[in-house]
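Ticket #4471: complex job returned nothing on first submit. Input attached below:
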Amino acid sequence: MAIKEIPKVTTHVLQEMKLRGEKIAMLTAYDYSIAKILDHTKIDVILVGDSASNVMAGHKTTIPITLNEMIYHASSVVRAVSRALVVVDLPFGTYQGNSKEALSSAIRIMKEAGADSVKLEGGKEILESVDRILSAGIPVMGHLGLTPQSIHKFGTYVVRATQKDEAERLVEDAHLLEKAGCFAIVLEKIPAKLAARVSKEIKIPIIGIGAGSSVDGQVLVLHDMLGITMEFSPRFLRRYHNLYEEIKGSVSSYIKDVKSLDFPNEREQY
Ligand code: KIV
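Support reply: We reran it on our side without changes. The output follows.
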């Protein structure tokens, strides 16, 4: 099948999309084969999320995944992608509280994986790291609201910024990230009204996950929206498939065919 050449999505393309009111579609990928399928659609952004820690490695949180593991996932994705913008999460412990380490982590992601940009969780408290990474010419996406790398501080995955003081801090952080030069911000699991306000006040694209429809784009974890992972069912998740059941069904048919000597048949051997 011939795949039509589509120009590469850049951070400037995303900015233009916001200006003309075209929504940005973003999904996660962690490996070559899935990233290739995504890139053959019109997906705008592929996120190599640290959710790989849960989805790929089976950890309970995103905290254990290492920089080397993220580079492995990201380099696999980058080899498959020619159109979408590839954003890679800096994992926990590689940028917080030490801007020099943050820059060297981001440089490794760019050089060893060939990513287009990096994503960091947090606002004011990580601004020095954001500034230093940006000063090296590396595009940075911010991430505010529910920031899973801080789960042990929050204690739960409930909706964030429902109270006025936290909401105002989030708006302030969004302004700081924009002023620093971030090209976009993810807002995770916050009230839709608050996300709409941020999207209106901030000139860079705002990508929501559980942040309502009045933002500039949406992101979901691919394994969740395809129904491969079934243990996670937040209200914001729309499931487009039940691949868990489909894969189970196919594997059961295969087992039956092997046991009954139906597979391989005459045409499936040499
Ligand atoms: O790691 C991830 O998949 C993410 C998205 C949920 C935004 O950060």
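The longest helix spans residues 164-180. Closing as resolved unless it happens again.
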